[in-house]
Amino acid sequence: MLIGENIKEALRSLVGSKQRSLLALLGIVIGIGSVIAMVSIGTIVQNEALRQFKEMGTDILQASMSSGRDSRQGRNEFSLRTVMDIPYECDRISLATPQTSVYGKLQFSGNRLDIPALGVAESAKELFKIDLSAGRFISDLDKNMFYCVIGSKVARFLRQNGLSDPLGEKILFNKEYFKIVGVAPELPMNSMRPYQINEGILIPVTTSFRFPRAPKIQQLTVRLAPGADVPGATAELKEYLQARDRVEVRITSAEELINRMQKQMQMFTLLLGAIGSISLIVGGVGVMNVMLVSVSERKREIGIRRALGARRADIQAQFLIESLILCFVGGLIGIALGVGSSYVISRLSDWHFLVSLPAVFLGVGVSVVIGLFFGFYPARQAANMSPIEALREE
Amino acid sequence: MIKMVDIRKSFHLGPVEVEILRGVDLQVEGGDLLCIVGASGCGKSTLMNILGFLDIPDKGRYIFEDREMRDLSDSELSEIRNRKIGFVFQQFFLLPKLNAADNVCLPLVYRGMGKRERDEIGMRMLEKVGMADRAGHKPSELSGGQQQRVAIARALAGGPSLILADEPTGALDKNTSRDIIDLFWELNKGQGMTIILITHDPDIARECPRVLRMEDGRVFSD
Fold it and tell me: Which of A110, B10, B29, B160 could form a Cys-Cys staple with B86, CB 3.0–4.6 A?
């Protein structure tokens, strides 16, 4: 009962002392705002990372030599044949590509650029979801040929040196002339997609063996057959590689990486939320402070109301509602501020913006709880004041 | 209507305990007009606060309309203040942010009465004290006499059976005081309202049918 009257009364009192209310509001706005912004940004970053993974597909496994040169049998590489046979030998795997790495100098019209080259098989196109912006991909028929697909960074470098249509042109990499057969666009990166795609050039894996210090196949990537389960495929691949090449392998699944990443992101979001919460608590203390001042300034009023028949509960409700309204309004503004600032930050960082609904509900809930919690003590103090002492107050 | 037996009340003034009321016996009937006089500090206001259920005595019995004060909880005391007692204070004690009509209606708010009904009663009370044309004014826009009229309307709004007035003319000039006192007389004679009045003014006391003199925490009849 009396809720309507109390709300009216609270609004009158809050508007009556504008400066004080605004200061208390500011604390809550900043508190809620920072919690929402932090949690939203955490969620946005998390989604962003997931999106980059999902765009390539999560049915990916990566195999590498375990702990580098740990090779009791004296071997520390996969043989090309072993890798190329994977789709035929393992039922649960449909695609496989070896990966070799070569670093070197790219020279074009007198300018140089240090870039990596990645030796791959034809299946890499589908495995890493590389949709070329021009030309064709490396083919398995390009065996030993000096053909390459250039990534976005090299394309940019060539354009800066006056080559706007690089298709069919020749570039000098590590003292060998490579013909450009395809151009890849800039692709979003994740830990399953080799960084060389954007940063350097792709060449046939057999061609990579022709460089003076021939690289070894120490890493390979496979895609699961439709409907295959990750643990089963992992076991099958591991067994196959160990049996064929007598090497110790470590297999990482995209699923595992995503889970690990998600856990890290959640910790990160939690941490951000915790940092925001500190300012929220400071804001709450500000509200309590303002409410205590309001109570002691209005002792006379409390006494008059009590003399006219207000019960303790009525007085307590009056002040509690005042602090609730303060925190609720502050919470709403804070949510707007938090969502707004996370929008701006995600726009500046080129992330997909999204409103984290849990964060918004959390914001509303927390502001109400703050209002109750930090308003309770002042309201109680007001309610427990003796009427005559309150009236005697000047 | 009111019966007080051996009411005692002490206050702590620093380390010293001062007994303000030292055994007050009092009987008031419905329709009485009672005046309490006495030097300041003799306990008039404390007695008034106890009569109005704002304060609780240390000892003694206070029976109001067949109800024992010491049996009542805090919210029952609040309800009696709300429904049975109308206070008029020396300093008027209107809420500065409310206009006259809202001030008058304030006791009714605590009964959970709807706005329309409240406003109707409020207007009627303001008419009774001749302030209907100032209903929308804030207390700061009213003179002292006008504020006290609004306060009296507020005391009447709840339909109380007892009006307690603690030096209602103490802050008013002579002419205004006369008007306010006449209003009280009118309420008592015209409507049979029970009124207990504290005053310093011997002229007012002289007009009263029944005068109590307080001295040293005790009450003597004149």
Answer: B160
